[in-house]
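In response to reviewer comment 3 from the previous cycle, which asked for concrete evidence that the modeling workflow produces usable outputs, we include below a single protein chain processed end to end. The sequence was submitted unchanged, and the resulting structure tokens are shown without manual editing.
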Amino acid sequence: MIATIDILFFTATFLLVLGVGMYAGRKESSSSDYFLGGRSLPWWGIAGSLFGTNISANHLVGMLGIGFSVGFAQSHYEFGSIPAIVLLAFVFLPLFRRKKFYTLSQFLQGKFGPTAGRIYSGISLILITIQLTGALYIGTRSFLPFLKDAGIEITYTELVLWIAFTSTIYTWFGGLKSVVYTDVIQTVLILASGILLAYLSITRPEVGGIFELLAKEESRADGLSKMNLYLPPNHPTLPWTGALSGLFLLHIFYWNTNQYVVQRTLGGKSLREARLGILIGGLLKLTVPFFSILTGVAAYQIWTALGAATDIAPDEAFSKLVVLVVPLGYGLIGVILAGLLGAIFSSIDSMLHSAATLFTIDFYKPLMERSNRKLSDVEEMNSGRIFLLIFSALVTVLAILFVDPNSKKNFFIELSNQSSHFTPALLVVFLFGILNIKISSRMICITILLTPAFSFLLPSLYSYAAPISIKQTFGEELNFLHRVFFSFLFAIVILSLAAYFQNRKQKGSKDRETEPLKSLEKNGEPFSLQIFLKPNTKYWVLFLFLFFGLIVTRIQIPEIKIFISVAGFLLFWIFSIFITIQKKSPNQSFTTLIRKRDEWLYGILLGLTFLFYLWF
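The workflow returned the following structure tokens.
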């Protein structure tokens, strides 16, 4: 199936990525260069790196598999991330950049003490270990069939070793610049391969095009359309109640408090440059459901028509679909393989580099300082590089020994499930830190460590103690997205009570009443959410009234959902233009205003998200 031209294109792409990675990092001479790219990254580098880091093989392969097995509801993983991305651009990032942090644990150390920061770093390293092991597994498994088809005899273990070794080389050599600039190339490859596969699948005779696909799903005899974005609350995989609660919290954690995502934004030339890169990355993110998940739905239609839908495992859907729909001899398979390779490398290199940053800045450097030894820039870089090699070897062994290469499960969902025990408490702690709420370091640490234990026990408590009526509504087993939401509430209750009793002990009743308001500003640093409140309150009230009015209308009259969706987009866009114009200086042209302000851009981003949520 794989022709010479495919091999040539793939090989050229591989050498290009490796060469750019080595070239971009050739002048790294300080820890700032190695860990933050010298804080000189342009907006397009940040946008490409954010997209490439996020869209790993887990997405390209795993999301297509879930689109095949579950349906378009998987788009919640993409649409729901957009509000979280806007929060990063306008709330979290300004605070992180103001203090010139290398790691997010430094933010927690400043708010709640060094122990809280180190616990965050330790848990982050655990999460990176889980996710990196999954990235090696899913990347290897999706790549293996193509190599065997090309006549290359290679085992799962050998391919894991090759992927880990290659991505480690340029990451070890060049630091964040190598990671970012290779991610930009890989983003282009991911988009090209994803769109190509989507086009070839949706235009197959068994599907008949996008409108025919939508019509076939709407008219299914069992009434279970795979194009329905909102699955029942008792759905075992993606209930809409969990998607709009627990999953949204996971989005906020991933995009705002996740070291390997936020790190490239900390390396931006300026806040404006970093913010623009984040928003453009968000626009790219909105394309994923339409070239990955929708392709999975089309694959279901193809294999149903061929009578083979029950024989395909979700994580095998990508490779089998390429074999089925891509014509031979044109180099198209080489394009798709290059995109798959980019998806594999772009996530692995980012996680490896961030793990090295966390270890060096949060563990090794403080350890040396306690021993009265100050590390030089070269020593910091070298310690990060040594740890990177050790860490790469560790996750490689885990991917070989502890993951079943023949699993029939949706590995993307499994990975989210495994990681989500640790994230709710960390998110709550960051939110309390953003709000400048005073809590003792001891209670912060107890909450971070206690919440995962509660999360592990919660499914058992639900099985034994939940009323029958609740189980009839939400299912016999507690979905992990619902678990995330309740774990988040658990952490909020603990820290809120701790803050209340601590303030009560330290201050009089008058101070206790005003403290929550005073805490929003400290040392001249206003709470960043105020950026959204600067326009007149009446305009925000009008906006919210219209916003919820559209939602209610969509629910009550689903027949006009297309018109409501478009109206929602226009509402966001017009309101964002209005906010932008309010920022205009007296002698400033409208063109200059649009170029220098980005409120209009996040209006488009949120408007498109709202449009898709109401349409589907």
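Residues 37-406 form a domain with the Sodium/glucose cotransporter fold (CATH 1.20.1730.10). We consider this sufficient to address the reviewer's concern, and the full set will be provided in the supplementary archive.
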